[in-house]
Amino acid sequence: MANSSTEKTRRMVVLSILTALVVVLQLVASNILIGTFPLTLTLVPVVIGSALCGPKAGAWLGSVFGVVVLIMCVIGVDAGGSVLWNANPFLTALICIGKGALAGFCAGLAYKAVAKKNSLGGVITAAVVSPVVNTGTFIIGLTVLFNPILVSWAGDAGSDVITYILVVLVGVNFLLELTINLVLSTVIERIINYRVRRLA
């Protein structure tokens, strides 16, 4: 019983630290713009949390990330998100929070599935899945729920919608997020292994 209580306390401490890190990193990243959208550095602690504490914890951290993104949209720091907020606040909140929660949850599932055989493989898989789901969900949400705005942005950039999605939304933002996650994968694995050894 004591071990169970201690583990719950440790889990709460880890989640609290990672939650604070998500908020700080997203606030810092909101100043690094790629086109009209800020770079996402926050997926690293989301991946760490989903691997250490499971898919539900990943979904929590992803949701926190989404809430911070939403606040940036509301106050106008995220210019692209602000346009979406002014068009439809509910759908903007749904996309912002939904994509983050889904990215964290899926990263946790991916880690769980692969880490049984290979810890580093589990981390790399989670590190890939997280930005894929985050960006993919955003693009799907934008295409389905805000298509006229997407078409307008593509027109302003002098391209068609497909090219705009591939070059601006996927080509730059996604590749940077994916690269950051992959570069930090070995660091993430060390953090996870350190915690596992301490609990052993």
UniProtKB/TrEMBL annotation:
Keywords: Membrane, Transmembrane, Transmembrane helix. This is ECF transporter S component. InterPro entries: ECF_trnsprt_substrate-spec. Pfam families: ECF_trnsprt (PF12822). The chain crosses the membrane at residues 12-29, 35-53, 60-84, 90-111, 123-149, 161-188. GO terms for molecular function: transmembrane transporter activity. It comes from the Bacteria.
